[in-house]
Amino acid sequence: MAVRPRDLDPSAMAAVDALLRAHVAGRGRALAEVGPELGPVVDVLDDAVSGGKRLRAAFCLWGARAATGGDLVDGAVEAAAALELFHLAALVHDDVMDRSDDRRGRPTVHRAFADHHVAGGLGGDPAAYGSAVAVLVGDLCLTWSDDLAAEAVARAGAEGPAARAVWSRMRDQVLAGQYLDVLSHSRGISSAATSVRVLRYKSAKYTVEHPLALGATLGGAGHDVLDALASFGLAVGEAFQLRDDVLGVFGDPAVTGKPVVDDVREGKRTLLVAWAEEGASPGQRAALRRHLGDPEVDADGLAEVREVLVDTGALARVEARITELVGAAAADLATVPLDDGSRAALDGLSSACAWRAA
Fold it and tell me: From which domain of life does this come (predicted)?
């Protein structure tokens, strides 16, 4: 059976879920006071906050436990909830930039509000309306996540300022990574070095390294523990994103909740693509140029891209890199003085990131 982040610390994760629901519900009531027109916004936020793997929350909670020998500390639940709201903001905005129609098996926020526009007979462009509302929804999640982060810092006492610095660094680096991603798409260049830098700052660090650091800092971890956890977290975060890149082209939409053709239509310049271009023949390179970034690419075009990714050895190379990263993470984890529960949980989370099907 696959490891699920929610199963590793059920009581703490239940507290995170309860805090998220209460926080969003409270903010939703404030929105509703403005007028009934805000009802659809409140509804989509209530719905969105109930989903997801809670991966970042799990790493934060176990980072705190790792620092204390198994105990949670004041502020850890608030920090974990803040990470989940920050992640939701990133997803909403990322879906707008990627023009994705589905997320977690549901319409994305901008798609849902474009549909509201059509159903309500509103004037103007439905797509522009949906994107505008989604930007606002993402902004709400971002500001609410910062409110929860501030609560975590306040509850943490002496460790609060250092935890706030981790949060701020994470927030800045994610946005920087997102910009690098947008820039690389516009340039149409798939160098391996650029692809790795994008995946580190856009995803890997804020998925694992920074949540671990946030929890461990709240728990008062020393520099030796923080450094070892950072190395472990970066390796696991990179494995997570590489698996995401593979699933984006070869995954099962019924399991991932996203159309498998989206990454090709968007023309994502992943390490998988970069390595394919390195080893491609002129004909294979022409096929990649023809289909990557084509918004009208069909099943035949997707099949042709998949064939190139396999035949150039790029897919096998990415799978080998994932295995290598998991091994490096395990070696890093072995250097950290941990209680048995924290070590087992972090090992399980590493496997969940690398070998997941969704």
Answer: Bacteria
Residue 102, φ and ψ in degrees, nearest 5: -130, 145
Residue 66, amino acid: A
C-alpha span between 64 and 58 (Å, rounded): 10
Pick the CATH number of 5-355 from 1.10.3210.10, 3.40.190.170, 1.10.600.10, 3.40.50.2000: 1.10.600.10
Tokens coding 296: 């009208």
Which residue carries 């639940």 as its tokens? 77
Provide the token pair at 311.
Answer: 């035949």
Q: What digits encode the pLDDT tens for the residues 139-196?
A: 999 999 999 999 999 999 999 999 999 999 999 999 999 999 989 888 876 689 999 9
Q: Which residues of 127-163 are buried (b: 16+ CB within 10 A; e: fewer)?
A: eebbbebbeebbebbbebbbebbebbbebbeebbebb
- The two tokens of residue 103 are 């997320």
The domain locations on the chain are: 5-355
User: In the chain, helix, strand, coil percent, each to 5?
Assistant: 80, 0, 20
- Strand spans (E) along the chain: 102-103, 106-107
Residue 201: per-residue pLDDT: 96
Question: How long, in residues, is the chain?
Answer: 358
The CB-based long-range contact list for 100-103 (8 Å cut-off, 24+ gap) reads 100/258, 100/259, 100/262, 100/266, 101/259, 101/262, 102/257, 102/258, 102/259, 103/257, 103/258
Query: Quick one: three-class SS letters along 103-163?
Result: ECCEECHHHHHHHHHHHCCCCCCHHHHHHHHHHHHHHHHHHHHHHHHHHHHHHHHHHHHHH
Give the Cα separation of 233 and 198 in Å (integer): 16
Report the range of poorest mean pLDDT among 255-259, 293-297, 349-353: 255-259
pLDDT of 289-338, one tens digit each? 999 999 999 999 999 999 999 999 999 999 999 999 999 999 999 999 99
